[in-house]
Design goal:
Helix 4 (76-110) runs parallel beside helix 9 (218-237) and helix 10 (239-245) crosses helix 14 (303-327). The protein is mainly alpha-helical. 72% of the residues lie in helices and 0% in strands. The protein has helices at residues 18-21, 30-53, 61-69, 76-110, 122-137, 142-164, 173-197, 199-209, 218-237, 239-245, 249-254, 259-281, 287-299, 303-327, 336-355.
């Protein structure tokens, strides 16, 4: 195998390995990828508008437009747009970007196409800290859960990386996966023990655990935005390093990469992104797992393009799932976490059968 500059990946067309040919993307040239990303941003704007307009109380486009240009606090439609729909859409946008980027980074760091927040124990850590907050400290409400969930995600991620880094080889993909599985099992055991002995904690916890954007306010968006913006910047900056890591640790070192430092930098971005997203909306499954595969099918294996595509695609998926959940069960709604699970599971199975999930 010839060596390539750091940050670049071999052109799939030049590879002799048949498995690598599976990774050829729909768009191969830079201008085509940029054009495709632009189309996705337009689609995201359309879905965001739909998220503001549709719900248990459908609104006209005129009412939505007037709520921004000539706001009248005495009009119910304007209050719905400004106080409910816009904050909810903003939280969904941030959470979607965070889940998409973190999923792509986790799969790149672990070199595991099935890696997601559950593998590295992040979701389980958040859930454990929220349960402890409810049971021990009597915390109630989403604003109270946010910081506990974020702290749990951070502690669990650090614990997984510390355990996975033990030994001479450092944090290898297999050791990270094993450490994540162990931490997840421990956190889930303690969480279950608390929920079994206290019904009140169970009743408060189960709504957050289902994964939902309902009731998310502008305060929550404001609290989470700095972490997700910082984590997104770090994740996008990690793209060239992930390309080198995808070639294997030995090749990455020969290209001048400091493997442990690159892997640690990417892990910190995951902590920020998944911690903030889980804290704001609860554990939402399949988004971070499925979306990077779709992005990779469009762009090919270059993480400099996989990452931005994953962020935008995940935001589109999450907002669209939230809109569907609001309109299929009026005047109630189905939590977005349930919709993504219903859509993601069969889609992922179809993706596995069709693409055969070539190695990352």
């Amino acid at each position: 195998m010839s060596l390539h500059a750091v940050g670049e990946v071999p052109d799939a067309d030049t590879r002799s390995d048949p498995a690598a040919l599976v990774q050829v993307g729909l768009f191969r040239a830079g201008p085509a990828r940029a054009f495709g990303l632009g189309l996705l941003l337009v689609a995201l704007a359309v879905v965001a508008l739909a998220s503001i307009r549709y719900g248990s109380r459908p609104l006209s486009l005129e009412a939505v437009f007037d709520a921004f240009t000539s706001f009248d606090r005495d009009l119910t439609d304007h209050l719905v747009v400004r106080d409910q729909r816009v904050p909810r859409t903003l939280v969904g946008l941030l959470v979607g970007v965070a889940l998409g980027l973190s999923g792509a980074v986790m799969q790149g760091v672990a070199r595991n196409p099935l890696a997601d927040p559950g593998i590295l124990g992040v979701s389980a850590g958040s859930a454990l800290f929220v349960v402890v907050a409810i049971y021990v400290f009597g915390v109630t409400g989403l604003l109270g859960y946010v910081w506990w969930a974020f702290a749990g995600a951070a502690v669990a991620s650090v614990a997984v990386y510390a355990l996975g880094a033990l030994g001479r080889e450092g944090a290898t993909p297999i050791k990270l996966a094993l450490a994540g599985t162990a931490v997840t099992a421990l956190c889930q055991s303690v969480t279950s023990a608390v929920l079994v002995v206290d019904v009140n904690t169970l009743n408060q916890f189960r709504f957050w655990e289902a994964g939902s954007l309902a009731g998310r306010t502008s305060e929550i968006a404001g609290q989470m935005a700095p972490f997700i913006i910082l984590g997104s910047g770090m994740a996008l900056a990690a793209g060239p390093s992930l390309n080198a890591l995808a070639l294997g640790d030995d090749v990455a070192r020969s290209l001048g990469q400091r493997v442990h430092l690159a892997r640690g930098f990417a892990a910190v971005s995951v902590v920020l992104l998944v911690g903030a997203a889980t804290a704001a909306a609860g554990p939402i499954v399949f988004v971070g797992l499925v979306v990077p595969h779709v992005a990779r099918a469009i762009t090919g294996p270059d993480y400099r393009w996989v990452l931005p595509y994953s962020g935008v695609l995940a935001a589109i998926l999450l907002l669209a799932a939230d809109v569907v959940g609001r309109v299929v069960d009026r005047p109630g709604e189905v939590q977005v976490g349930l919709i993504t699970a219903l859509v993601g599971a069969p889609f992922f199975i179809a993706l596995v059968r069709r693409r055969k999930l070539a190695e990352l």
